[in-house]
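Backbone shapes recur. Consider a single case.
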Amino acid sequence: MTDQDRYIAGVPCWIDTSQPDPAAAASFYGELFGWELENVMPDDAPGTYYVARLPGGDVGAIGSQQEGMTGPATWDSYVWVDDADASAAQVTEAGGKVLAGPFDVMDAGRTAVCTDTEGAMFCLWQPGRHRGATVVNEPGSLNFNILHTHDLDAARKFYGAVFGWEVLEGAAGTWWVLSAYGDFLESRTPGLRERMAEMGAPERFEEVVAGINRDADDRPPGWSVVFAVDDADAIAARATELGGRVIAPPADGPWVRMAVIADPQGAMFTASRFAPENKDVQPG
């Protein structure tokens, strides 16, 4: 870890999406969020990997689907770990699966593609040169990673064993928390806990590393991403103009106004505006 790192082990640190047409996806998200995109792969590489940036640094990436890959495009979540090999072994011991890796991504880091006991896919990230997203919680950048699960008890057991996460349930929703993360953030920004309490944030909210949706419908278990936006209604309208689809129209929730959107190639995400005036709104 360096003094500038924004993450500790057990905290989601990066997102990317593999797309059938990454150039088209880069155009969509560039127009939607104002991202600057750079293909960081060599000219002779078989695919592309566009790193998305906002003023201040990296946000995420858009890459090519692997040859022979089928199914809709998705956004993938990476969790920072100290040792990808050891964490991959913990995934297996906890009843999950390692689908690929661990393997090195040049000098950027070491990764593995895994699933939990319900089949929800996520990635491990042992950082090398690449230290994760440097812009978060700003309009057009990652705000939350959300687990969609049908079995909270199984998820609690699995992610507790692999990452040390605990479940926090309250009026504002259900969350994954990591006590060490709250201490880390407080050390980076002294007084954070006190200011959050003054705002009326739920107890332990500074320890939140991800969210949980307990889905009772036919949606398969998986991880999704939430992007912060200035105006969820405007983003939903603009996404439609750019060829995307609004899956769930803008609506108020606890502390937010949000919409669920699919990009033109099917990758779903949530656009969320922080709305303190909605802090007493009950979850839908």
In short: The mean pLDDT is 92. Residues 142-278 form a domain with the 2,3-Dihydroxybiphenyl 1,2-Dioxygenase; domain 1 fold (CATH 3.10.180.10). The longest strand covers residues 97-105.
